[in-house]
DNA sequence: ACGTTCTGTCATCGT
DNA sequence: TCACGATGACAGAAC
């Protein structure tokens, strides 16, 4: 780029200050406003002094451009915004201001966008580092199988031997039971399923489907009044139907009472008896304090209702308790509970599911279980753990959704903020361009060549040197130097 | 009757 | 190898 024309260029001495602050421009010109030729044959402007100020009265004057952002190139007018930038000024011969402005905008905005993007990115990373759940960012697992493979597998599950087995055992749609031990247990427990006509459905949270007389057990359907013992004491965390049922039931310490008789004269003591409350020995560490406290000595119905109402009902509510007429609604046992009941599993489901593996194995060694019982116990343990895992999984999934929704809201707010800043920047830039245009017009109106003719904006451009001097450079020279 | 939601279950994978 | 947790997918029940 040629900063000065080889021919008749005109030098102006301009003490420029950063454009975003006060622009004090001193044009040193001869008193008669006629440029003087310097040693290089350039027109040198003397003495003329005037201050051009870009005031801060605009509505967007508070916008502070980052000091590291590149100088605003003014295209054909070629005036740097700040002397701190010694970058050679662009000297295009473009006279179309709009085009020139577009060019300048494209040079400026990326820097601003980069800055904004960097801040955004930093904020995001900073945020991610402290709050973002790593799980959320985990890549989605690759598909386990293709669609066709899945279809094939499903078909096999529905029509294969397992499916046939299921079809023979249940009335419901068969499921693909491909597990080894599970297949065995399924087969072994099929009699239970068959008897209970359960169709393999989960009845844990469902009203009783079977007739009041449970075919499987051969005893009347378990209700809250006739089921006195709890072998499945669940935690309070999932207090749904399941939790209510869990509260309804209560556990016995099978180790303290290993000889508890099973009412159906099975080979093993069982935890599914129809029992008398007087025989109950609640296990304190398995019961919530409130249930435990009010449990002893209460009539079974009262106890059941109290336990049924459980958590949300305070202690004082007991004083207003009125025993409802009629039988309380029957609380169904889950499929596994009924299976365990049918096979006379001698320990509670709670222990089957929640005991550590070592304790669980030790528990199994204390009893002589049949293969069917063993398989059922292991199935119950597997299903029970998986049920809790599924609940946790769904809880986490919901939490992730909530979290991501929050993240989305924040990102949208940041996007809107950046859009507003961009609009403000463009508005400010337009103001600056407008004022510079006026400034140019005023400067050129003051300039005269040797013959007293004014310089034309179309013919000359202003070029600033690193030391702040500004020269009038013919645009033809600028074009030639490109 | 149909769609949605909830829940249990199974299969599978990774640790 | 086994136990276990996580998770997608499926199915039934409930609404």
List the helices and strands and how they pair.
Elements lengths: L9 E4 L22 E2 L5 E2 L52 H34 L3 H4 L9 H13 L1 H9 L10 H9 L1 H7 L16 E2 L4 E2 L20 H8 L40 H7 L4 H10 L25 H9 L5 H6 L2 H9 L5 H76 L13 E5 L4 E6 H7 L1
This protein binds a DNA duplex (15 and 15 nucleotides) through helix 3 and helix 13.
Organism: Hucho hucho
Family: Belongs to the bZIP family. CNC subfamily.
Keywords: Activator, DNA-binding, Nucleus, Transcription, Transcription regulation
Describe the structure.
This protein is mostly helical and 482 residues long. The chain folds into two domains: 10-131 and 419-481, no CATH class; 182-406, no CATH class. The protein has 14 helices and seven strands. The strands form two sheets. Strands 2-3-1-7-6 form a five-stranded mixed β-sheet. A two-stranded antiparallel ribbon has the order 4-5. The protein is rod-shaped, with a radius of gyration of 44 Å. It starts with 9 loop residues before the first strand and ends with a helix. It binds a DNA duplex (15 and 15 nucleotides) through residues 141, 144-145, 150, 153-154, 157, 172-173, 175-179, 182, 199-207, 209, 240-242, 334-335, 357, 382-383, 385-394, 396-397. It comes from Hucho hucho (huchen). Residues 376-439 form the BZIP domain. Keywords: Activator, DNA-binding, Nucleus, Transcription, Transcription regulation. Pfam families: bZIP_Maf (PF03131).
């Amino acid at each position: 780029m040629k900063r000065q024309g080889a021919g008749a260029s005109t030098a102006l001495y301009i003490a420029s200050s950063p454009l975003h602050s006060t622009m004090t421009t001193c044009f040193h010109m001869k008193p008669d406003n006629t440029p003087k030729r310097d040693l290089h044959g350039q027109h040198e402007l003397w003495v003329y002094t005037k201050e051009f100020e870009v005031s801060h009265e605009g509505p967007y004057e508070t916008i502070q451009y980052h000091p590291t952002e590149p100088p605003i190139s003014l295209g054909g007018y070629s005036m740097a915004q700040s002397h701190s930038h010694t970058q050679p000024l662009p000297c295009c011969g473009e006279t179309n201001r709009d085009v020139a402005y577009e060019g300048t905008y494209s040079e400026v905005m990326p820097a601003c966008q980069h800055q904004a993007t960097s801040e955004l990115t930093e904020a995001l990373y900073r945020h991610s580092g402290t709050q973002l759940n790593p799980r959320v960012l985990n890549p989605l697992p690759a598909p386990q199988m293709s669609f066709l493979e899945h279809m094939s597998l499903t078909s096999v599950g529905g029509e294969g031997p397992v499916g046939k087995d299921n079809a023979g055992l249940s009335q419901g749609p068969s499921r693909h039971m491909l597990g080894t031990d599970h297949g065995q247990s399924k087969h072994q427990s099929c009699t239970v399923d068959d008897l209970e006509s359960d169709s393999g459905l989960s009845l844990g949270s469902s009203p009783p489907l079977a007739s009041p007389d449970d075919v499987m057990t051969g005893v009347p359907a378990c209700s809250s009044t006739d089921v006195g013992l709890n072998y499945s004491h669940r935690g309070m965390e999932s207090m749904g139907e399941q939790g209510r049922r869990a509260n309804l039931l209560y556990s016995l310490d099978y180790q303290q009472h290993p000889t508890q008789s099973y009412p159906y004269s099975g080979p093993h003591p069982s935890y599914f008896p129809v029992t008398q409350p007087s025989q109950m020995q609640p296990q304190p560490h398995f019961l919530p304090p409130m249930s435990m406290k009010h449990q002893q000595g209460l009539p079974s119905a009262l106890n059941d209702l109290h336990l049924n109402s459980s958590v949300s009902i305070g202690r004082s509510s007991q004083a207003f308790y009125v025993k409802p007429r009629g039988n309380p609604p029957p609380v169904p046992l889950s499929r596994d509970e009924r299976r365990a009941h049918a096979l006379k599993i001698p320990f509670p489901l709670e222990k089957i599911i929640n005991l550590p593996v070592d304790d669980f194995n030790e528990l199994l060694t204390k009893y002589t279980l049949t293969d069917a019982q063993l398989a059922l116990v292991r199935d119950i343990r597997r299903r029970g753990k998986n049920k809790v895992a599924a609940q946790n999984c769904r809880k986490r999934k919901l939490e992730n959704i909530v979290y991501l929704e929050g993240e989305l809201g924040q990102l949208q707010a940041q996007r809107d903020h950046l859009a507003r800043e961009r609009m403000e920047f463009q508005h400010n830039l337009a103001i600056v361009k407008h004022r510079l245009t006026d400034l140019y017009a005023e400067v050129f109106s003051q300039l005269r060549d040797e013959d007293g003719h004014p310089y034309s904006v179309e013919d000359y451009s202003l070029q600033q040197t690193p030391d702040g001097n500004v020269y009038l450079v013919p645009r033809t020279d600028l074009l030639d130097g490109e």
